[in-house]
Task: inverse folding
């Protein structure tokens, strides 16, 4: 009986409609992990501040949050939406101020898109910290340079990288008007608009770019020691201490011809200057490209890009060296702009037995490959002749024994200029016989217009003046071929 009565009661209940009204949606509540910050003076927070919050909804769930730094909330307040429960903010005081109070409001949004009508609020007292900056060394740190210089730097800010505004740069005098670059710029090339001037106005290529900034930088002086001063400035106009680059002596460009001395000392410069002067080229500029102090090159640019800009300042380069590895490697990486601008090059580079015959450093020259006979060393004897392969070029003669000679196979279109009378040493039998194979030691190639723009010798020219007619050789190269 009790069971049947219960079933009847349940059946009767299911047949009735529900009575009453649907409850209204309740707004969520918002809470900050920290609700009060009391700090004064130097004890204030740094500008980079991390805040945390959470929300609760009695009759649903929180889907996100909206925040604002408006001190007073009005109908015009713009709220920023986030689904996170924490975030890091850069709260930089206004320019010229080192501290400020920021009011942070945060409100939760529930699953019915209802916002907390009483947002949580927190006053954040911050004090700006000044930024810092350091000079970063380049691939090289030149002590002498023609007027194209690259510097690297790194800025930081205790209040966060986003608080950095810009960097200010000065050459030599920090009392003048600064040159300003964005804080995102971490290096620049400063290249004289007129490298022949004494007072140098420089084009500035930010981050090594190919397009110069709109404004020139002044203050660089030719034939003088120069220093770059750089400082970082943050959003509140606080400035770092100056970072000061090493002094560099900037050389004025005097000529359209550059002698690149690839020896470790000022070797053979007088030889080239005298033969150039005999052909009316009395003024030349010089660069001792592999001079080093403490294992650091003193005249190479900070990077290959800047070195290329220096080479492109000249119409002709005469490069002489006894170090083929260093010379070909550097020249290949730094002379593209020079040749694109119509530059002409004469290279006299001794190639020793240690040079890799498969090296791709020769790709930019008239040389396709080196002649490298098995178990055989080729020698230029004292007094050996070099025969001109082109009409009107003077025959030459060796003035010393060259213990290793590397004849060359030429690239398509290149022209052989000289073949040498060489002796072949059989390194197994230790016998000496005349060499009958390829013996080209000098060649040239032309540019797209058919003009000779590259002459190369794998023997040092200063060892080939046995007939005392090197003036005639330079006349053929510099006057007849290069058009000086």
Result:
């Amino acid at each position: 009986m009790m069971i049947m009565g219960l079933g009847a009661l349940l059946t009767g209940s299911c047949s009735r409609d529900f009575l009453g009204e649907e409850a209204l949606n309740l707004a969520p509540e918002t809470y900050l992990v920290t609700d009060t910050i009391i700090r004064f003076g130097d004890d204030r927070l740094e500008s980079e501040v991390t805040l945390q919050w959470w929300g609760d909804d009695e009759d649903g769930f929180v889907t996100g949050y909206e925040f604002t730094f408006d001190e007073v909330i009005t109908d015009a307040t713009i709220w920023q939406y986030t689904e996170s429960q924490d975030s890091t903010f850069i709260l930089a005081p206004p320019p010229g101020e080192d501290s400020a109070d920021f009011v942070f409001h945060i409100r939760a949004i529930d699953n019915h898109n209802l916002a907390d009508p009483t947002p949580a609020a927190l006053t954040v007292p911050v004090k700006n910290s000044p930024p810092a900056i350091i000079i970063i060394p380049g691939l090289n740190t030149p002590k002498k340079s023609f007027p194209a210089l690259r510097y690297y730097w790194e800025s930081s800010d205790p209040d966060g990288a986003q608080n950095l505004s810009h960097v200010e740069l000065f050459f030599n005098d920090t009392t003048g008007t600064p040159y300003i670059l964005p804080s995102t710029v971490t290096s620049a090339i400063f290249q004289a608009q007129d490298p022949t001037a004494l007072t140098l106005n420089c084009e500035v290529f930010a981050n090594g770019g190919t397009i110069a900034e709109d404004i020139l930088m002044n203050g660089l002086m030719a034939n003088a020691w120069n220093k770059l001063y750089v400082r970082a400035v943050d959003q509140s106009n606080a400035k770092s201490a100056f970072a000061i680059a090493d002094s560099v002596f900037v050389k004025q460009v005097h000529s359209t011809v550059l002698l690149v001395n690839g020896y470790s000392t000022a070797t053979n410069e007088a030889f080239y200057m005298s033969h150039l002067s005999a052909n009316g080229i009395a003024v030349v500029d010089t660069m001792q490209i592999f001079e080093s102090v403490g294992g650091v090159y003193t005249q190479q640019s900070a990077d290959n890009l800047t070195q290329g800009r220096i080479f492109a300042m000249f119409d002709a380069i005469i490069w002489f060296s006894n170090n083929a590895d260093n010379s070909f490697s550097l020249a290949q990486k730094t002379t593209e702009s020079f040749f694109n601008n119509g530059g002409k090059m004469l290279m006299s580079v001794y190639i020793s037995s240690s040079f890799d015959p498969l090296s791709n450093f020769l790709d930019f020259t008239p040389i396709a490959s080196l002649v490298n006979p098995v178990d055989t060393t080729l020698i230029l004897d004292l007094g050996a002749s070099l025969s001109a392969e082109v009409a009107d070029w003077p025959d030459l003669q060796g003035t010393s024994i060259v213990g290793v000679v590397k004849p060359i196979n030429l690239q398509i279109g290149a022209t052989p200029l000289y073949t040498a009378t060489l002796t072949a040493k059989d390194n197994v039998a230790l016998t000496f016989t005349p060499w009958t194979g390829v013996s080209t030691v000098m060649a040239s190639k032309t540019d797209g217009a058919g003009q000779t723009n590259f002459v190369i010798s794998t023997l040092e020219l200063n060892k080939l003046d046995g007939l005392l007619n090197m003036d005639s050789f330079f006349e053929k190269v510099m006057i007849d071929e290069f058009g000086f």
